[in-house]
Amino acid sequence: MLDPNLHTPAYLKSRSALLTTTVLAVASTVLANLSLSQVEQAAEAFRLQGHAEKLSLVVFASGARSVEIVQAQILLCRWGPCPKTRLDEQRWMRAAMYQRMATEIGLDHPRRHEGSTQLDVELNGRLRRNDLRTRIFLVLNEYR
Fold first, then answer.
1. Cα–Cα distance measured from residue 7 to residue 26, given in angstroms and rounded to the nearest whole number
2. What is the pLDDT of residue 5?
3. Span 3-22, average pLDDT
């Protein structure tokens, strides 16, 4: 879902603390699950995941809306930790919330990203494809 040419560490940091933390949490979880990983790596992955969840609550409480927030919620829902019991399962609620958020910011329709220079035109093309990939993941998540 993320474009490696667009979603650089500098871009992520400038656009969304939630998406930055979520990417770090998912990556650390993958590294912690490798066969040669240390106990400290698993503990760090757990702390990052908890921090991403706390940021997610802050974002929802503040009413912030952006495509990066929707992307972070998709990543947390699809690649976050599995709940221990069915009573702890809240991914369905998160999915409903980010679907609504995507509609509120207009991801259900193609959005325009304006630019005048050649560099802006290339960036705007990447942003349009970023919106499209996010919409595709929303549809895929809805039917999984």
1. 15
2. 92
3. 94
